[in-house]
Amino acid sequence: MNPLHLAEIRGARLAWAAVSLTFIVTNAAAALALLVSGSAAAAHPVGPDQASEVDSLVALGGFNAVLVALVALAVIGSATQLVVSSRRGAIARLALAGATPRQVVGTVMTQLAVVSLASAIVGDVVAILSLDRALEYVQSDPATPIIIEPHVSVSMLLLANGGCLLVALLGGLRQSLLASRIPPVEALREASRPARTRVWVVAVKVLLCAAGIAGSLALVADPTLIDERDRMQVVLQVSLLHLVLAGALLSSAAPFTVAWLARAWTAMVPVRSGTWHLARNTVVAKGDRLAKSVVPVTFTVGLLIGMLIMGETLVASLAAGGAPVDDFSSEGLGSLLVLLGLPLAVSISGAVGSLVMMTRQRSAELALDGVLGATPAQRAAIPVLEALIVTITATMLAAVMVAMMLVVPVLHFETVLGGFAVGVPWLVVVQVVGALAAVVVAATALPATPSLRQPAPKVIARLVAD
Known about the structure:
Layout: H1 3-11, H2 13-41, H3 48-86, H4 88-96, H5 101-138, H6 154-180, H7 187-191, H8 199-219, H9 228-267, H10 274-285, H11 287-320, H12 328-357, H13 359-371, H14 376-405, H15 407-417, H16 426-445, H17 456-465
Helix pairs in contact: 1-5, 2-3, 2-5, 2-6, 2-12, 3-6, 3-9, 3-11, 3-12, 5-6, 8-9, 9-10, 9-11, 9-14, 9-15, 10-14, 11-12, 11-14, 11-16, 12-16, 13-14, 13-17, 14-16
Protein name: ABC3 transporter permease C-terminal domain-containing protein
Keywords: Cell membrane, Membrane, Signal, Transmembrane, Transmembrane helix
Signal peptide: 1-42
């Protein structure tokens, strides 16, 4: 590695450190899902019942890996693009110093590869240490007892790490290419502008997600053709797949929809205070940053609320069909956690990492607000209001995710369960959204608090130096 690459990695260490949790959790989740599948595939079942359980565990690990990949495409992509965008000033100075576009792109790709591979090592260790407990947790059927020994497959680990590395490189490639094409004379002026979004790229992503939703609907078009023992599990998995695919579709369209949605609903808030005005206009003006911050929060809210509503809907539908539901509620929630636990961990880490990563930009904006006359109390309140705007916007999009998830139950629960009824635990939903709002506020406001006690020129100069 040449001295230039080492210097750039050192210069960007704080930005990469903020999102390293996202990379580590994603690698650990993908590796753990594939290791569960690999361990089950390496087992030697005796009898058809044990063989059926082994096949189910292989499919379970594969299904988790698919869901983790779909969430990671959005979450890691957003985190990577945020880091690269925050380093556009440094990239601009490289161009002014005479670096060729190829050298600029190579520098950014080297940083991404180093961070991804370092995170992969930590993620692999976490996955290996968690494998025994994960296998115990998913082998919950006492009717078909079988002990599956942990089997650490190097090929599975490499597959997980390679997938995460590819997602990270693809997420940063476009940003680095755009930055490298800026003429040196305009580099510094352009460095602070958000990257332009290509409509055709967004359209392709949206169409692919829509095709995935349509294809999964076709798989369960007639549930009676599925084996009766697997019918309910397949319909449930397709419902949850819709939840994640809907989130991927919304994240793909985020560059055009998130800022518009935030602008629309905040305009209807009957508040005329200067603090709200500053917070709202800052958030809307930074539409590119807002979109990348909202995406992982949307996945987190959507997965949590979707899991809760699906559990209640299963109970309500079984009751509507006359089936006993005494012990199903807790067992059903546990099954949903097995299916969505790993993607949920990825989305939570992505939400926190993306918000913390923008601390320097946010601190500089607060310093500028102070120069323009904002009081210390107003400057402290602005990031809190920004976090609330992010949370509410994400909750609105999460409601769309849940609605898409319920399409399959509406169409097929009557056939599969003998009845259909939507169950919404409103109190728990409000508590979950409130808890997530507190996390988002903490991740947004607390890291910026120390800068409020520093001179504004120093805070601004630090951002310019980046």
